[in-house]
Design a protein that fits this description.
This protein folds into 2 domains: 1-72, no CATH class; 77-179. Helices cover 80% and strands 0% of the residues. The chain is built from 6 helices and no strands.
Length: 179
């Protein structure tokens, strides 16, 4: 409709989008496991950083996992794989947003000293709208992304159970060693 230059403009936009998504993904794939490990929700090996502060273990493990995910989706074209990864990244980012929105609502409803009257109404409304938006956007990711993303999240539950088991076992072992 607009001639040959429009196709070039769309291709340049796609390249910028791909590099932007790649940069964001790389930043997240190292920092999220690092933060989770520091909070005791991920194995301690993810807290190790290089002398430059780079969470190398998180980057390597995340890269291996995303490569495996791409291989599972090998029959799709590059555009379909890119869309799938972007939507999956969006899903995994929006789930904490949804939890945070409900945590804000819970805080507003239970902390009567800080939240009363107009502030309670404003913060409660924002929290409910943020949760609704997160849920709407998650649903907009599509069935396949939500299904596979849910499976990936559920696959992390055994890691959490193992960490909590180890956390409880360590004080008991320390007491036996001291005795």
């Amino acid at each position: 409709m607009f001639g040959g230059w429009a196709g070039t403009a769309v291709a340049i936009g796609a390249i910028v989008s791909a590099f932007g998504a790649l940069n964001g993904w790389i930043l997240l794939q190292g920092q999220v496991p690092l933060a989770a490990a520091r909070d005791g929700l991920f194995p301690r090996v993810f807290t190790k950083v290089t002398r430059w502060g780079t969470p190398a273990v998180g980057l390597v493990v995340s890269s291996v996992l995303i490569t495996g995910l791409m291989l599972l989706n090998y029959n799709a074209g590059l555009v379909e794989q890119f869309n799938f990864v972007i939507l999956l990244a969006t899903l995994t980012t929006l789930i904490p947003y949804a939890y945070s929105a409900m945590a804000q609502l819970m805080l507003a409803l239970t902390d009567r000293d800080r939240f009363a009257g107009r502030r309670l109404a404003v913060d409660g409304t924002i929290a409910v709208l943020a949760f609704a938006y997160s849920l709407w956007t998650i649903a907009g990711s599509g069935y396949e992304v939500v299904y596979k993303g849910s499976l990936l999240l559920i696959a992390g539950i055994p890691v959490y159970v193992w960490l909590k088991y180890r956390e409880r076992r360590q004080p008991a072992e320390a007491e036996r060693t001291a005795a």
